[in-house]
Amino acid sequence: MIEFLYVAAALLLLLTGLGLARMMWGPAPADRMMAAQLLGTGGGAIALLIASASGITAIIDIALVLALLAAFAAVALALGEPGTKQPDGQANP
Amino acid sequence: MNLLPDLALVLLILTAAIWTVAVRDRRDAVIGFIVVGLLLSLAWMRLNAVDVALTEAAIGGGATGLLLLRACARLVPTQAESVLPRLSMRIMTGLLCSVIAVGLAAIVLTPVEPPATLAAEAAANMGELGLGNPITVVLLAYRALDTLLEKVVLVLALIGVWTLTPDVFWGGAPASLRAQQSSGALTFLAQVLPPVGVVIGVYLIWNGADHPGGTFQGGTVLAAMWLLVMMANLREPPEIRLRTLRLLVVLGPVVFLVAGFAGFWIANGFLSYPPAFAKPIIVIVEAALALSIAVILGMLVAGPAARAPR
Amino acid sequence: MSLVVDIFTMAAVGAGLFFFLAGTVGLLRFPDTLTRLHALTKADNLGFGFIVLGLLPQSPDVLTGLKLVVVWLLVQLGAATASQLIAQFVRSERRHEPAA
Fold first, then answer.
1. Residues 6 or more apart from B72 whose CB is under 8 A from it?
2. Set of chain B residues whose Cβ sits within 8 Å of the Cβ of C74
3. How many domains does chain B have?
């Protein structure tokens, strides 16, 4: 069982690592943010698998923090859309 | 067999880091930076440094990524960007970085035998303080002076950011953080997530006594929840002349200092704890520190004042 | 009993890995930003959900299991919101650059 979970974690790492390719390719910033999102969720899943395999339940807290802050980068991306004005009068380039 | 996924992780980190440095667009580089932070958090987890992994996940994914993306949004392309430094300068910089990297690698890869560490003695005396997490014991008891100085540095950093305010705006509120278009999904998230986030933040602070966690991780989560509320336009950033705000900013270091000086009367000296009251004092100091960290990080991301005080 | 539990865990984690694979392949191969977003949400929701489902029976105590459920709920909330926000971002970017 434990070996299976470790192998599953390794496979998941490989898969989310492939998402890096989209981060480097993706023409739009949204594509890159999606790769980051995949990595965040995948990383959380990897943490949960390793927590269960190694018995160190503290690692679940890492997944908890990753899950909590999952949406943050996506929110921040929306802050700097081009062609709009900041409320203090400066225009975005 | 066990080495393979670790190697894969290292390769991923290197790829992401090299791409982040090489990419031209600022915003793409910030996204790469967030991804490198996430992968580093996984690496720390593999090295059994759960406290550091928690901090990396909280800071890299939350606070710093947000800070940098906001900075990207405010920067206007200038003339200086189109002029690269001279080739000789670039080569020298590359050489210097390589020398430092090789030096660090040499230090890490040739360990001293037996390893020079105080871990055994530190772990032996942990029981006196009633704490179970050796990291917290080191941060708040053995090296409490370092932690105190670090928190003071945080306050100084915030003052440094505030000094960027134009004179005419001094005392006013930072620029509004709200996202450009009001979004139902964002408002929903900012109404549902912060209560859960606050509970998780307090849990991380409280749990840090005996398990991985602590003031910095919990404080960062609290700051992230506050920032989320401000980004969804449910609250405006406070004016920097507000007394309550400034009180909260210095609360942590002040309480820590009071506890430190009280050590002269009730224990052996500065920042020393009486054995009977060690844990309550540490918990009070942790609570004050976490509150200060949350406020300081939130105001750091909000930036200098951009409006005249009302 | 323990064998049944182990088989359930392996099946659920396997299903989760399958959906992550589907999501990653979709993210890499779909032609358009919004279609890739659709693939991503499959991985986020189904992949993560199945993995948590598979790990629930393996948790040492009820509290840990509860923590797993909380993590799953947070990921659901965060991923759903993030996909909405990314889609809105894409739409507003297209509105401002009609030539692209």
1. A80, B26, B27, B30
2. 193, 196
3. 2
The parent domain of residue C35 ranges over 2-96
Amino acid, res. B226? W
Task: Give pLDDT tens digits for A14-62.
Answer: 998 898 988 888 788 888 988 988 999 999 999 999 999 988 889 999 9
Q: The pTM is what? A: 0.89
Decide if C78 and B189 are in contact by the 8 Å CB cutoff.
yes
CA proximity to A15, closest of B48, B29, B12, B14: B12
ipTM reported for the complex, 2 dp: 0.88
Find the distance separating the first CA and the last CA of chain B, reported in whole Å: 64
**B170 within domain boundaries:** yes
Residue type, B68: L
The verdict on B146 and B282 lying in the same domain is yes
Residue B34 belongs to what domain range? 1-74
**B60 and B152 housed in the same domain:** no
Q: Contact A65/B57, CB-based, under 8 Å? A: yes
Looking at B49, B74, B99, which one is the last position of a domain?
Answer: B74
| Cα distances (Å, whole numbers) of residue B61 to A8, B131, B207, B232, C21 | 24, 29, 21, 18, 24
